Amino acid sequence: MNRGTGGGVVAAGFSLLFFTFLFGPLIIMVITAFNSSSFPRITPWECFTTDWFGVLFANDRLMSGLANSLVIAISVVVIAVPIGLAGALALSELGPRLRAALYTVLITPILIPGVVLGISTIVFWGAFGRSVGADYGSIFYNGMFLTLAGQVTFISAYAMLVFLARLQRFDPILTEAALDLGATPGQAFRKILLPFLWPAIGSAAFLTFLASFENYNTTVFTILSGNTFTTALASKVRHGTDPSLSALAVIIIGITLIGAVVHEAHMRRKEVMRTGTAARSRIYGNPVLRTLVHPLTIFVILLGVAGFATYQGSLHDAGVCKQQILDDKRARQQELLEEQRRKMEAQQQNQAPASTAPVEAPVKANPSPFGGAFKPNGLKPGE
């Protein structure tokens, strides 16, 4: 019994340390986002404020970088997902030896460091632009195009891996039967293979979007004089941080939690509808309960809660508290100055009296070897 109790204590302690290590930084960032201190900290706590969210949205560099990142990420999804699907379909139709060779070629960009990919992208497209006579204002020297080209080279491999994992569960007899029944290859692909790949298409699109949005190593070279969200964040951290980054973390955590809850609701609804248990008739037989547990309803409710919290936070005015904190700091500074002045006066009073010895007459300086040409007013007429 004691042995079991000791094992339970160790497991509980390990779990506590694990979750503290995992979620501790996130909790700290959430708290610092609402502290009025100009430096991200929890203690000493000053005032509760939501002003750092306004500071975040007022940062033009971050907002322009966010817009650029969204444009690039959506473009990468549009290009990388079809390329990854084509690569996966090609690999599934080849023999074992040729498949292994082509797989090695297609997977290599993932293994190359992002720094190398970024520099090689600039060098390649710059040389290509010069070979066709393009000037420096053309697309071959545009940071957005270079970033898109550099990211697609390796993010397409991520999409290909997702499709390969899905295709391993596909039975090719289905498409062969459709072809035998008179369907064209295009019809077999659209009506049989493509519906089977829809979950993989969604996963690949989501993965490629995140991989593009958070990429830094390649983007920092290919974006040239522009900026994306990650490069703007890195620049802000290098030049000095403030709680506006904590406010950004709060927004990201909120979006992630809403997405996770909605996804969990969707998966549970899908499982209940598939199994057809008593819960299906009890919950989905009632129109009210069926509406409440629907993922779209849950999403609307969570979005409304987040919007209400945002509105209430915008109404909070921390001006009085900030002024009080400022007055306290000034009063403390004045006390320290007064204390320093008293110490200096006490030190002057405790000093020994000055010596009463006669002061010797100053020794006359030696005559200048230049005849006094450099003494004051030595160049006046008559001197």
Please describe what this structure looks like.
InterPro entries: Bact_Polyamine_Transport (IPR051789), MetI-like (IPR000515), MetI-like_sf (IPR035906). This is Inner membrane ABC transporter permease protein YdcV. Among the domains are: 181 residues, MetI-like fold (Orthogonal Bundle), CATH 1.10.3720.10; 80 residues. Helix content is 73%, strand content 0%. The chain is built from 15 helices and no strands.
| Straight-line distance between termini | 111 Å
Name the CATH superfamily classification of the domain at 62-242: MetI-like
Number of strands: 0
Low-confidence stretches: none
The helix content, as a percent range, equals over 70%
Roughly what is the average pLDDT, rounded to an integer? 85
Number of helices: 15
CATH top level class name of the domain at 62-242: Mainly Alpha
Largest sheet: none
From the alpha-carbon coordinates, what is the Rg to the nearest angstrom? 35 Å
> Can you tell me the CATH topology of the domain at 62-242?
MetI-like fold
